[in-house]
Amino acid sequence: MRFRSRCATLFAAMLWCVLPACGAQAAPAQATAARPGHAAIASSQRLATEAGFEMLKEGGNAFDAAIAVAAVLSVVQPESSGIGEGGLFLLHRASDGRNVMLDARETAPTGASTKLYENPDGTPNRDKSLNGPLAAAIPGEPAALVWLAEHYGRLPLSKSLAPAIRIARDGFRGDREFMEALAERQAVIRRYPGSAALLLEDGGVLPATHLFRNPDLAATLARIAKDGDAGFYHGEFARKLVDGVRAAGGTWTLADLADYKVVERAPLAFDYRPPGGPVYRIVSASPPSSGGVALVEIFNMLSGFDLSGMDRAHRVHTVIEAMRRAYRDRTQYLGDPDFVKMPLARLTSMAYADELRASILPDKATPSSALPRPNVAVQPESMHTTHFSIIDRDGNMVAATQTVNTWFGSCLVIPGTGFVLNNEMDDFALVPGKPNAYGLIGYAANAPAPGRRPLSSMTPSFVFGPDRDMAIGSPGGSTIITQVLEGILHFIDGDGAEQIVSAPRYHQQYLPDVVFVEPDALDAKTRTELRDMGYTLKQRHPWGDMNVAIWNRRTGEVSAASDPRGGSGLGEVK
Question: What share of the chain has pLDDT > 90, as a percent?
């Protein structure tokens, strides 16, 4: 069947102390009791999904397919993906039930300092944190692809990177988002000769019919395929990157690249049991992602409510209040676990959830100003990220989210490399207590330091239920967590992949104290009742580009779906 839509160390010791059900151990026994027999892949680009199936046909597994999908996305979706970026890869190995997260987040260069991003009056200099060399952090994506091939895949990198190399060499036609992103970012792209040469034509946006070829990126990927990490982080190519960044005004060093390492981390794993219902094991991203911690908090709070017995308005009210409290804690406590001691044991405990739950009033919104945290006005976060989900014939699973922080990242292309460097430095709390470009604030826990990884909202997740398993995730900046939350709730309610990715969404992130809603998310009666409870509702253009793969172990059916909001995605089963 086929669904098509438009659209290196574990910090396990700390996590084992956080939750009894936490870690990289096996999922419930029934989750690996049988083989699916078919594979499902959902990604935001048709060519990427097809590349994943090409690897499975060659004898590869889900992890080989993930390399191919990620690499093709870096070619055909450079506005929101690329090897100049980083990401989080959540892996489930069917042979032993092991769950692990590959942390391939970018790291701050040695010269990183908050002073670099401040105006003379102490306010944030957004141009420096978003555009050009000072915005660029050390990429993690190439190291992740090499690590996946060496530790989990069956195929050599020369095979799994072949589709991306072929497409970069032969060319592709950009989709609507690609062209819109070029138009929006062309003024910044024009600042840098290497960027303008790659992404513009005679100083202007490429025509819609343009066949976009990128021989420099093909050569870069071929070098990684041949030499692994050494082909990117060491030697002549590393020197080219460092010289280019420093010539543009950045601070990178050869040691910054040579010292980059993928880190295998224990994901957060916890159980959620709806009142009167079965247990669901949820596995999600651990810090430096805030996604898993927020999901634990939210589901722990929701476990004390019978959502199925509520009318629509009260169910939405309850979920919003859980969102609000989890995002409040994200602001204050979370950061890079290799640098920051976080109160994870308390944040993820049921005792703490009991305290938070007790503060939720049954018929009244809690003003965010009533929660004891700094009151800083913020704006909603950007969508410039990609996610893909894979289940192979043996039951191996991948949920991977990778990000270019804003369209085309820093817009800086070092000549001869073929890719933009991501502006991930803006994900740090560059000026403590001040919002980043997309609305989230932070303090010392997420301050930049050499080698530190910025906090993320990426939430690649698995759900292991009594009959069905799911890989899920989405782009969407600060909305990622609530998208995955709502997707999991739909899954628990019995919805299929197409229903999950298509369902209308709502979002509350503590600050600003409003509830963002998609046009069809709430009916008129529910809107009125929520306003009467004290909520400010703000309609917003649909957000996200969710990709879901599901295995129904009872029927043997495998399904996949790509979000209709995206427009170019493909969820397919073979």
Answer: 75
